[in-house]
Amino acid sequence: MVLRIIAVGLIYIGISVAWLILGQTVHLRTQEQDGKLKDAVGQLWGTAQTQRAPQIYRLDRVTRTETGAQGESISRTVDEKRFQDLKSSRIEVDLSLEHRRKGLLWYSTYQVRFASTYTLSNPTDRSLTLYFDLELPAHRAVYDDFTLTVEGQRVADVPVRAGHLVQPVDLAPNQAVPVHVSYRSRGLDQWRYSFGEDVNQVTDFELMMRTDFDAIDFPADSVSPTSKTRAGDAWTLKWRYDHLLTGVDLGMVMPARLNPGPWVRQVVLAAPISLFLFFFLLFVFTTVRRIDLHPMHYFFIGAAFFSFHLLLAYLVDHMLIHYAFGLAAAVSIFLVMSYMRLVVGTRLAFVEIGAGQFIYLVLFSYTFFIPGYTGLAITALCIATLFAAMQTTGRTDWNAVFDRKTAGSA
């Protein structure tokens, strides 16, 4: 009896090692694909976008005196930037989500429509030329239907250099001029609006964001909206500030779909727990029912359990994860039930053993589709297994069982 338990234990350890190898293989495949495919998705669809607030400045000509190599004084005239704040900002952002799959991974791509009206002001009593400097959100991106309008007049030749739109704006004394910028683009994972790297002053600011998805989330280092309204599967979010000092961004993280690669790895690495519970309950059940199972029977059952994860790991490359899960589960259950039918008969194979495999393999693995509840579900299953074993063997004379098994072996 003891030797049989040791043999079953060695079989369990061997299959568990195979699961560890399979889990590492899935992890390496996922990392390799992510390194290649994310860059390819970025080239086709664009990267994460951060639209920075425009910088407004004027150029003042100043004379500076420097000391030359021989100690002589050298005077030179330069244009120095004098920055000033925007009078107001009105921004509208529409985000449309579209998930794209490559290999073992889903990528959260989106289309963005950006429309903004910034008001520049000249608080002085003399005419000024202010420069409107807007950095585009990403270098590897496409900007369709790009429009630049100054005081209602569209600028035909958009002055873009090195990723910056720099437009001079002439203002009369005490004049305010609206500058409108709009475009459509595409990005990946998240969209941000940044006020700058340091703490900046924001006056009369309003950004309205509309999404076509309901699973909204914000970057960890960002400002949450001041108001939000839900309409079905869409949200309208608003950031409204009269006067604000801030050094953080605002934005949106795109909802992510369940990625097959990381998910399969989690299921594979947790598989030894499910097999241990199943072996434990099977041992208790066969002992109480006086069914003599050889360690080779446990080996073939364990191999059928492993076949579920092996097939699942490679099916997810070719079909949706739920379909792959169902097909792999059906194959594994068929292997076990058709085999155990020959060992213990049809009824036991289809009822007790089939139901046990469905619980400890299929339902156990399905809990990984429910983030946040997997650990609780596994804990509940362990407790339920212990309860069932204790209730089944409460009146069992284990000394007699082991003696009987030992005598039988002799």
Q: What's the short story on this structure?
A:
The protein is an alpha+beta fold. It is 42% helix and 34% strand.
Word description of this protein:
This protein is α+β, with helices and mostly antiparallel strands and 410 residues long. Helix content is 42%, strand content 34%. The chain has an 8-stranded mixed β-sheet. Strands 3-2-6-10-9 form a 5-stranded antiparallel β-sheet, with no helix packed on it. Strands 1-12-16 form a 3-stranded mixed β-sheet, with no helix packed on it. It is elongated and about 105 Å long.
Order of helices and strands: HEEEEEEEEEEEEEEEEHHHHHH
**Count of DSSP E strands?**
16
Record the strand order, biggest sheet.
Answer: 8-7-11-5-4-13-15-14
Q: What is the percentage of strand-forming residues?
A: 25-35%
Query: How much is the average pLDDT?
Result: 86
- Poorly predicted ranges (pLDDT <50, ≥5 residues)? none
**Biggest pleated-sheet summary:** 8 strands, mixed
In angstroms, what separates the terminal alpha carbons?
10 Å
Helical content (DSSP H or I, runs of 4+): 40-55%
Radius of gyration: 33 Å
- Gross morphology is elongated
Query: Pairing-aware structural class of the strands and helices?
Result: alpha+beta
Instruction: Compute the number of helices.
Output: 7
Would you spell out the secondary-structure blueprint of this structure?
Layout: H1 2-45, E1 49-52, E2 55-67, E3 73-84, E4 88-102, E5 105-121, E6 128-135, E7 144-150, E8 153-154, E9 160-161, E10 164-171, E11 176-188, E12 190-194, E13 200-211, E14 227-231, E15 234-246, E16 250-253, H2 260-288, H3 295-315, H4 321-344, H5 346-366, H6 374-393, H7 398-409
Parallel strand pairs: 1-12, 4-13
Antiparallel strand pairs: 2-3, 2-6, 4-5, 5-11, 6-10, 7-8, 7-11, 9-10, 12-16, 13-15, 14-15
